[in-house]
Amino acid sequence: MSLIQPYQTKWAEDFQLLAEHLQAALADLPIRIEHVGSTSVVGLAAKPIIDIDIVFAQAISFDAIRTKLEATGYYHNGNQGIIDREVFKRLDTVAHPVFDNIEHHLYVCPENSIELNRHLRFRDALRASAAARNAYEQIKLELAALAGQDRKLYAEMKEAHATALIQQVLEQY
Description:
Elements: H1 10-25, E1 31-36, E2 50-56, H2 62-71, E3 74-76, E4 86-90, E5 104-110, H3 114-128, H4 130-146, H5 151-161, H6 163-172
Parallel strand pairs: 2-5
Antiparallel strand pairs: 1-2, 3-4, 4-5
């Protein structure tokens, strides 16, 4: 199977299902849940992994979010070198019918996070511009082919080769 797959409407449905369950898990906290990354852009080919940003106001304690996510079987995996973007991954010890069956990346960001702003601006620019969307998709397809469809190698190559295009898109839109 190809690493990068043609756009699928199922990705939006998967996001909605994940968001509903995350909202239920964090029910009493004033957060918002954003679908980011390539699967959030209609028509854009992508790795079939849903990227989610849980956004919170500074008035809310990050610890409250972490505690509730941990109760549903996530663990906090640090910021992985990106300030104000905390990564959560699944544990094998707590089963969940949705979280365990839809591949996703889960991040928690304060609303003033530079990385969150970049995620949202890039998503919105790709949604608004067919030219930007097509250029980004072409780079992704070429890098996946060069990486021999290897996910880890693709990620490394994308970091090195797509950064200039991402910056260009962010500056133009």
